[in-house]
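Quick one before lunch.
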Amino acid sequence: MRYNTDEFIKDIRSRLSDARFYHSMCVADEAMALAKRYGGDPHAAYAAGILHDVLKEQPRDEALRFFASHGVKLSPVELAAPKLWHAIAGAVYITETYAPEQALVDAVRYHTTGRVGMSLPEKILFVADFISADRDYPGVEDMRTRAKISLAYAMEEGLRFTVYELSERGAVIHPDTVACYNEIVLSQERK
Ligand code: DGI
Ligand code: FE
Ligand code: FE
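Model of the fe (iii) ion complex:
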């Protein structure tokens, strides 16, 4: 499917702050580069990057109304983790608004938690979000190096960081995040 990415850009421009808009465009560029490197669809990866945080700045009460009106039931863990809402709501929003390929919807849906059995487009977006040009956290260079070796190698470190950081501050960890981490650890040769 060919996407009208100018339309997507206009949409996120109207919904996001300057910094979040810039982040989204950087993720789109990075996702396109990863798709070229790993044999994915660069155009679809770019489109997913643009849209991945489209509802990131949706107010809490609006998000809850959005879930109610679209028949989305959140699990207790999801209810307790508002940072996960933009991925769940974003996937519903883009389905309703643009009816893209399911692979793009799933990439947005799982870009924050990951999940077991991620497809190439899902992995590409997940990793692009960690290493986009706007990211400058300690360790980002190591993540960029890992992403050149393999997507799984970068994902393992990203998930480890997420699990560590969440448990450190007493936040709930989504079962998809844990399952994704375990799958990767089990699939790799351990040193
Ligand atoms: O939207 P971005 O900021 O670009 O990145 P993101 O969608 O990966 O969101 C990152 C945030 O989501 C970060 O503050 C940690 C949080 N997060 C990721 N996985 C989990 C989670 N929060 C909870 N409670 N549980 C998770 O499994
Ligand atoms: Fe996000
Ligand atoms: Fe993001």
